[in-house]
Amino acid sequence: MKQDPREYLARTKGIRYPFDGHKLAEQDNYVKNLYLKHLSMLLCCGKVVSEEQTLFFQRLIAGCKGEYDLETYMRQGQEVSPESLEEFLEAIPAKNLRDIFFLDALLLAHLGPQDEEQEELLVALCEAIQMKRPVLEQLADLSGRILRLKLFDCIETEFWEEHQIQSELWRPYFLNATDTIKPK
Amino acid sequence: MGIKQELNRGLRENYELLRALLSQERALSLKADLGNLEDIIGKQIPEALSKNAPPDYYELYMDFKSEYEKFRDYILYDQLIGKNVVALGGGFSSGKSSFLNALNGEDALPEAIEPTTAVPAYVVWGEDYRVQAINIFDAKVVFQNVLDIQKIAHGFGELECDGEKISEGTALGHVLESVFLATPQQSYRNIAFLDTPGYSKPESEQYSARTDEQIARRQLNTAGLILWFVNAEGGVITQNDIDFIKTLREDIPKLVILTRADRRQDQLAEIMAKVREALTLKGVGNIRGVYAYDKERPEDYDLPEIRRFLEDWNQRTPEPNFALNFKKLFVRCRKFFEDEKNKAGSKLEKLNHASMILSGDGEEEAGEVLDRLIDDFRREIQALTRTGERVRELQDAFFQEIKRVGDVVGIRMPEPSEVELLREDAGNPLTLLRDYNREHNVKPNRELLAVLQNALGDLKPVFPQAAGGGAYQGKLLDILRSYRVAPEEIRFNDVYRRTDAYRTLMAKEKGK
Fold this sequence. Notes:
A: mainly alpha; globular; B: 512 residues; alpha/beta; 18 helices
């Protein structure tokens, strides 16, 4: 079947810009699948999935070497069961992935149009995972810096001292950050 | 006409009818080659799932096949394309066909195709009467005379000579898969009625392969709306009917129609209330109404209301749900493998953890046993992955092929890449999470919402403009455009355009 090269390039763009160095990449497929499936719930409950959101998700899958493609994770996100939710909520803190998951969720949510149901879902997730208000504030602050591309704000020592957030959280979102950025 | 000629004519007519009836010329091949599709359905899918499949695989596969048969019906009876299919279901002789006649005017459905034929019949609007059928060899049979159907159903081979019956007839209805009738009397131009033979239990006298519950269910499940018929004389809706309706697809809206209402005129209101109550109590979903009807005095009962309902349905743009229904088999199978992998992965995780502890404690023997178990789980995960990937390949191949066929015959199908995102009525993740929080006594914290809204409420992300973002392309384009040189400023090829200057230049080069 003849394929328009521009359409192909657009569809596979995210794969060529992976979020390298993401914490999830170190995990095995079981954890990766739980993580990505439950992250895609956020897209499924939104009214519209924006191009930026699909790109972000594709880049995340590529960076973490996820087992399935975007469409499959999105389909899985529609079918989340109480059992799998329970499994996920146990595994994420145990694997020390809580903060990065919330960061990804915040970034993903804010790359699409504002959606009340998505916000409610984020809050319900925070409650389920018992996230404290200061941590959420820090993660929201960090996600704002990433979305505004305030790269140098992220590498200021004061910022890290104040927020106690490891640089590994934000590094993957700045392309080739490991080559060009040297935090103090 | 002499006795011999009369006999010969009768025999010739019977022969011609039999020849048409048993034709094996597949009309399908004229429009689109379905060979690849049928190979995927009949061979490749069963092969891929022969060793491991979900427990409900058989049902899923049979539903898939009947959806494919409906797709094939659309190719053969192209007048079905663009129509909303309204199926008539119910027990044997529950008044389905007489209802169709009452709805559309006398004899819309000729007696010859009434239920005794026990063949599913599509009835659509057409300028002229046209009767066609598909036989068991998938060949299309066109009938010149509507009475031929009656002959096939009741008295094929019956011969009379000089007013005396000289041979008995035999029913040949079972050689037909479906009948298609186009008639100017069908009042709803966007609706195709599918009159099904009705279902019966194996122990019933009316039971046949055609009225088998499974077959009836599959036929009904391909429709967009189901009219379910109950004989009011019984005074109640039977448990069998309720059980049957509950197994039909819940997303299909259903009307329950009580027939022969006149015979229970006095208690009708009570019977209807009982039926409504029974349906609610037994949790039968998506029932849009319970109505009464009698063929002798249809207008005195709820026929006008049913007509209004159908009129509304007639105005709707049909939404062919082939893709969604085809997708079910693939997705359920893949989900099964994903869940099995997930379970195996969870166990593997625990075993790996235990193995690390044991090796740290110097428990080598126990560690070896554990390692063997770990290997077993890894192999299991690999096998599940392979089968899951094979099912995905088949899904892509199937949808690519069916898209090709759909384009040829004019049935709109999505691109294979769009199939995965077709949504069924999915659960709501927010409700799921809230239920989880309630069950686990998690206290709601409304402050968190304020935190999110304050921190990011008016945010305008710049992120998409960086490499990898959606707006990055636009930025690159701006850069390229800012360096663009106007055509009149380009001098690059000037020297080659002026031949004299070029010759001079070449001569200079030679002289060097």
